[in-house]
Write a structure and sequence with these properties.
The chain is of the alpha+beta class. The protein is built from five helices and 13 strands. Bound molecules: adenosine monophosphate and zinc ion (2 copies). One zinc ion binds next to loops.
Length: 349
């Protein structure tokens, strides 16, 4: 449908079960949509590295919380390419006593509950250089960041009290970033977070009704941006945010951390392209990405509808009262229009 002829429409998505109101009248043309909130803090392009005040720069390792592991660099270069470190200001503490299993029942129980703030909060420093963004790395470089995530998630999965690991990246102050140097984070929690439970319940409903996984079922070419042998990048049918992108494994796979070298290269190349396109189309917007995987130790009967994916959300508008009150989002850009713009955008220049 042509953009001009569209009227408002409400759609519900089959992964989060969220209603989204598409209201083109609430925005300028989607092609004009740009971030008014240039990424801040942002790396200083061309800045001399290391930056004097940045503990994530090479040479300032002693100012960081302890290192968990590093990906070494060739001997003539910086001593490392990627570092996974403990968060100096962790939301959950690895030295707290883990809650006993009966304190966090797997199926959850209604009502209030409090457990000690045990968990793991790690930072992944994606490059030793202050002036390099994730999508400035080559596809192999992004692959290695993804493999570092997967390696750390596998380590955390070994801990009997860790139920889920949320991998995420904040880029830009209004996306929640406090550090400009390119990095991402992960939190290993002793409970299954509510968004994960809602997602799995919603996908189960679809599976029970249709026999299909919500993500394997996606076929529409109208919302496809780009594909590789192993992954598809789409704007989801009921995207909550303008220019939201999902990168989905084409095979039904429940756990991100099982990714192998070849698939990580494929994903790295697609993620790089999508971040380049967002930066070009939307004026280097603040954004978040999140890896939506599956809780550890889930019963095998749940795996047929549990399919991991990576969600990228550019932050172009603030969440208002309607969204907070109702849990519904208003999106001025129809997914088919956003997908067409992103598909046709040449990101090599
Ligand atoms: P963000 O706030 O999303 O930019 O993530 C940066 C994270 O790095 C925050 O959660 C900080 O707590 C953490 N952090 C800041 N300084 C250090 C440091 N010197 N060593 C380890 N973690 C740090
Ligand atoms: Zn730095
Ligand atoms: Zn699937």
């Amino acid at each position: 449908m042509a953009e001009a002829s569209r009227t408002s429409e409400a759609r519900r998505d089959s992964v989060f079960g969220r209603w989204v109101v598409f209201s083109p009248a609430r925005s300028r043309r989607p092609t004009d949509l740009k971030s008014h909130n240039p990424t801040n803090p942002s790396p200083d392009p061309g800045a001399e590295a290391p930056k004097p005040s940045c503990p994530f720069c090479a040479g300032r390792e002693s100012e960081c919380a302890p290192e968990i592991f590093r990906v070494p660099a060739p001997p003539e270069a910086s001593p490392w390419r990627i570092r996974v470190i403990e968060n100096l200001y962790p939301a959950l503490r690895r030295d707290a006593e883990p809650p006993a299993p009966e304190e966090v029942p797997p199926d959850g129980e209604p009502g209030e509950r409090a457990v000690r703030g045990f968990g793991f909060h790690d930072v992944v420093i994606e490059t030793p250089r202050h002036d390099v963004r994730l999508w400035d790395l080559d596809a192999e470089g992004v692959r290695d960041v993804l493999l570092a995530y997967a390696r750390r998630v596998r380590q955390l999965a070994e801990h009997p009290a860790v139920k889920y690991v949320q991998v995420f990246k904040n880029h830009g102050a209004s996306a929640g970033a406090s550090m400009a140097h390119s990095h991402s984070q992960m939190l290993g929690t002793p409970f299954v977070p509510p968004c994960v439970t809602t997602r799995l319940n919603c996908m189960k409903e679809v599976f029970d009704r249709s026999g299909n996984c919500s993500l394997c079922e996606i076929r529409s070419k109208d919302i496809l941006i780009s594909g590789t042998p192993n992954f598809s990048a789409i704007v989801p049918f009921a995207a909550s945010y303008p220019f939201e992108i999902w990168i989905i494994p084409q095979q039904h796979i429940s756990y991100f951390h099982e990714i192998d070298h070849d698939k990580a290269l494929d994903l790295g190349s697609l993620l790089k392209t999508m971040l380049q396109k967002l930066s070009k189309q939307l004026n280097d917007p603040p954004f978040n990405f999140m890896i939506h995987s599956t809780p550890f130790g889930l019963s095998s009967s749940c795996l047929p509808y549990a399919h991991w994916f990576l969600q990228i959300v550019p932050q172009l508008s603030v969440i208002g009262g309607f969204e907070i009150g109702s849990g519904c989002y208003i999106n001025p850009v129809f997914p088919e229009d956003a997908a067409k713009i992103m598909r046709e955008l040449d990101c090599l220049t």
